[in-house]
Specification:
Layout: H1 14-19, E1 22-26, E2 30-36, H2 49-69, E3 74-84, E4 92-102, E5 106-114, E6 120-131
Antiparallel strand pairs: 1-2, 2-4, 3-6, 4-5, 5-6
């Protein structure tokens, strides 16, 4: 969805909705979203590492798409990596994507995921190519 100023605004996808993601802030430089741990646990009762990577990909990609939309372009993911430092059991996690580089053909964001008390659970980096939209 494009806003009046032609900057793309975040629209949750089906998976984002299933995971309970809520967007708190959005710009090319920073996207912040949160997700409940409840409903996103693995079989040992901990927050699933894949759920954290999924959240990291969402916030990093959204920031990249907002950036790309300023030039009439779109962003497509080309790389993501994540280091899990700890896991959560209850409450919410917050993911903050911060721009590392906002270029005309490539951009990258660091994503830090923390729990309710600010403990870092995961650090991810995502790179997106900036390309022409397909018609």
């Amino acid at each position: 969805m494009m806003a009046e100023d032609s900057t793309w605004k975040i629209v949750l996808g089906e998976l984002d909705e299933k995971m309970g993601v809520e967007v708190l802030e959005e710009s090319p430089e920073t996207v912040v979203a949160r997700m409940p741990i409840d409903g996103n646990r693995q079989s040992l009762g901990l927050l699933h590492g894949g759920a954290m990577v999924c959240l990291a990909e969402a916030v990093g990609s959204w920031a990249a798409v907002i950036h790309a939309s300023r030039f009439g372009k779109v962003a497509v993911g080309v790389d993501i990596n994540a280091t899990h430092h700890s896991s959560g059991k209850n409450g919410w996690v917050t993911a903050t994507a911060t721009a590392i580089k906002l270029g005309k053909t490539m951009c990258s964001h660091e994503v830090i995921i923390t729990d309710d008390v600010g403990k870092r659970l995961c650090t991810a980096r995502i790179s997106n190519a900036i390309v022409d939209p397909r018609n």
